[in-house]
Every structure is written in C-alpha cells, then in structure tokens.
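Marked as duplicate of an earlier ticket. Keeping the data here for the record.
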Amino acid sequence: MKNLLLLLYFLLSSFSFLILFIIFAPIMRYKYIFILAVAMLVAVSAPAQRKSTRKAKKAVAAVAVGDKEQQVDTPLVVKNYIDSLTVLRRQLDSLEQVNASLRTESTDGRYFRLFAPTTFYHSGANKSLALSPNSGDEVTDAVDQAMMSLYMRRPDLVKNNESRLRDVGTLRDDVNQELTQQVDLTEKAAPVPEEQEAVPIGLVVVKPNFWKFKGDGYLQFLQNYVSGNWYKGGESNYSAVASLTFNVNYNDKDRVTFDNTLEMKLGFQTSRTDTVHKLKTNNDLLRLTSKLGLQAHKRWYYTLQLLAYTQFTRGYKANDEFVYSDFFSPFKLNVGIGMEYKVEALNKRLTGSLNFLPLSFNFMYVGRQALISRNGISGDHHTLEDFGSQFTGNLEWKITDQVTWKTRLYANTSYHRSLVEWENQFQLKISKYISANLFLYPRFDDSNVRDEDLGYFQFQEYSSLGISYSF
C-alpha cells in the first residue's frame, strides 16, 4: 500500500511539472528565475511529503495498536498535496508578475541604482532605521534592501554618496514652479479669404510712352443791346471769341522734360457806330512755347525756352482804315537759357512753372513797312535783334471744383526797352460743356508810341458765356 501511494505521488508530481513547463515555457529565457521556481517547488514539496508520511505512519500505528487492520485515508493525502500545489502556484504567480514588469518596464528608473557606479543612497539606511521600513513600492524596497546588503558586505566598493551628487547637480534642472501662460485677449480675426488658384497669364512687355497729349477749347458769345433813347447813351454790339490750346509734353520719369504749348485765340465784334468795318477783331493770338528741361535738383531744372508769337489777321480801330497789326507784323521770337521751378502746392490744386532766364536773345520781324516805326525799329529795317533777360510764370489754381484761375506773367527787358504782360483768365464752370469766362489783360510796352492818357500802359477786358470742352 505504501508503494502505491508513492507511485501515485510520483505521477502527480510529474504531471504537475509538465503543466508548469507548458504554462511557463514563454519565460524560459529567464532560466535562472525558472530554476529558482523549481527549487522552491522542491522545497515546498519535501515538507509536504514528510508531513503526509508522518500522518500515514500515525494512521498505521493507530491501526496496529488497535490490533485491528484498517484501510489508509487516501483523500487526506491528496488534499494535503493539493494544498502544497496551491502555495506553489501563488509563489509562481508573483514571479510571473515580476517577469512581466521586467519585460514591459524597460525604462523604469527604479533599477538605475543596481547598474550605476556604487553610491551610498540615504533611502536604504532611512528605511532600516524606521519603524515601518516598507514604502509601499515593492521594487523600490527590494532595491534598497539589495543596496544595504552590498554596503554591509562590500563597503570598499562604495566610491560616492548621494550628498555629493546633489552638490554637483544634474544635466537638467526640473521646473518645480508652476508655469502659467500669459494670454492676451485680442479682437476676433477676420476670416482669411480663400485664394484662387494661380492662373497662368501671358506677359506682354509694352514699351513705355513718355508723351502726353491734352487740350481744351471754348467758343463763347456776348450780346449787348442799348436802345437809341437810353438815358446814359451807349450802343448795341455783338461779340464772339474762340480759343483752342494744345499741350504735347514729354517726361522720361528720370531727368529730361520737353513741354510744348500751342495757343490760338481769335475774337470778333460788331458796332453800329463803326461805319467803316462790319467786323473788327477784339482778340487775336497765335503763340508757341517750348521748353527743354534737365533736372538739377528735385523741382529745379536747367531750361532752354523758345517763345514765338504773332496774330492771325489785321487789327483795326473803329471808323479807321489804318492797319495797326497784321500777321507777322509783328512776329516776335525769344530764346532764353536759365532755370525753371515746378510749382505744386495746396494739395496739387496750384500747379505751374516759373522760368528765370538771365540770358535771352530777342528777335522781332515786322512785315508791313508802315508798322516798322510803331514797333521801335529805326530806319528801313524790318528786323530787330537784341539781348536781355526774361521771366515767364504760368500758374493754374483750382480755387473750387467750379472756379479756376489761369495766369501768365511775362517780362522781358533788353535794358533799353521793357515789355510786361499779365494775362488773367477766370473760368466759371456751369456744367460739363457750359462755362463763363472773365479775361483781364494789363500790358506795359515802352517800345510803342506813348499815349497821352495811359502812357505805355494798355488794358483789355472782356467777359463771355458759351460752350467749352477739354480732352
């Protein structure tokens, strides 16, 4: 019977080892741990065997004492063996948890002290002297116990301590202070517009055009009626004036400018008291002004100016057949060199130019023989040349959107004679195509015959209403 029990125990043990081998085969690479598990199994199984053997002997002795032969209690033996297997199973489960932590926690810093150079850490000594040495962390407690065992057995291996490490410091400083973000509230940003996909376009390089063309003109009329018995006297008359101005300007946007202005103006009037002429001119001008400029500094330019002017037709006085002026009688040409200043003020409402020509050449031609002496030419000559100085100023001021003032001041002297002309035109724009003009023209010329009342001063004034057009 005893042999049968031993055989049964051997079979159960073999079967248990087979089951354990199948279960823990994945962890066989940790062979030392597995050997430890087998040793623990043998260590636990041996006491269980001895305990069960003693119980069996007692049972046999009891049977022998009673001098009565009875059968052995087999369930008791099996129960004791199952209890030993349960204890072994619990120990193997704890080992499996340790192995799982070793496989998953490959970067666990709690094992660092086991592999770093031997250093005396305070935690192990503090736990040894404390009333409750366990901290609740099994891994940390086990590492502290292992380090204390090393300190006691091999103190010669300890080359450093935790206090020195703290004095040296670490590679980085942990931020222990709580970080707070400074958030500034701003206005809600507008949504970003969706950009359309770039579409390939053809690039055409156009040669720049530095020329600019513009012009303006008007045709205006004036009618005046006075009855024959009007208490202050006077006479009825009709008048008309037409004007056309062309501007052709060149500017290379660098230094060179070339401005050209052609002015044409012609006006007629009728008078009942004039029995000799049905029509007489009251305004007659043909003038060309050209300026070539080279920029010197900002708005200052070195300038060469050409000025040429005459009239279209003959000029008469009331009830007088004498011709006082005619085409190319006179014709005046002036060429001067000097400086020009470009005017741009009042938010670009005042524009124009001022020309200072200290050196100028004057040429005058009179075609009619009877008009030679009236224009300051002596003898039978038709021409007169001299040198002098000249100033020309042309300004345009847009006082309002409806009122514009255009003025031209021209002064020329040969230091023997002087000529000053000041033309003023005030334009009132009634609509896009209708405007009214007031023209004031004082003049001084000491080359003409002196008048008994006005001397060398002359004056012309007229006002008109009509159509106007700019392009």
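See parent ticket for discussion. Residues 27-32, 42-49, 59-70 have pLDDT under 50 and may be disordered.
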